[in-house]
Amino acid sequence: MNFTWSKKENGQKTNPWLRLLYWGLVVAGIWFAYLNIQPYERAVSFLGGKATSSAFISLVAAIPIINGIAAIFSKSLSWILGAILWSVIQIIEVLPLILYNNENFIEKIVTSCDGRSRYQEKETDDPTLKMLKRTYNHLPISVVSNLEVLKIFTYTVDFLICLTVYSPVSSGKISDLIFILATGQWGKLDYGNLALALITLFAIEVIVSLIIWVGKLSYAIIP
Predict the structure, then answer these.
(1) What is the pLDDT of residue 113?
(2) Which residues of 124-151 are buried (b: 16+ CB within 10 A; e: fewer)?
(3) Is the pLDDT of residue 169 over 70?
(4) Does pTM surpass 0.70?
C-alpha cells in the first residue's frame, strides 16, 4: 500500500477531505500513543520499585541534591523504558494488520508456498535432518503462523498490564475481578477504568486500521 499523498498513480491529486481525514488520524494516533505509554511507564516504575532495595532508596533520599537528580532521572528512565515496552508490544500487535493489507507481501507468500519444493522425510534420515526438512517445508508460512501466536501472547500481556494499571475492581487484584465476573456482581466493576483499559488495548489498532482504509479509499475515489 502507498502511504504517500502527493499524487495518484494516474497523476491526479487525492481527495482533499480524505487527505485531511488521513492526517487527522495520524495526529490522533500520535496523541493516543502518548497517552497509552503512561500505563507502561507506571508498570515499569512499579517493577523498578519492587526491584530496588528500600535501604538504597532511603540512602539516596537522604542526600541533598542527589535525591532530586535521582528522582528526575528515575522518572525519565521509567518513561523511556515504558515507551520501549509499549512500542515493542504495539509493533507485534499491528504488524500482522499491516502485512495482511499489503498485496505484495501476500502475493510473495502465496507464490513462494505454491512454487516451493518440498523435501520428503525418510526413515533413514538423521533426527536433525528431519527437523531441518520439516522446518524448510513449513517456510515461509510458518513465519506468519508464529507471528499470529506471538500476537496472541502479546495481547495477553498487554491486557494484563492494562488491567493492572486500570483495574476495574477496587482491590486491583485479577483474582477479585475473576470472582466478580464469575458471580455476576456487575455493580462492583469500575466501568471507567475498564473503558480506559480497552482504549489502551485497542486504540492504536483501530486507528491504524482506519488509516489503511482511508489510504486505500483515496486511490479508489476520484476527486
Answers:
(1) 75
(2) eeeeeeeeebeeeeeeeeeeeeeeeeeb
(3) yes
(4) no
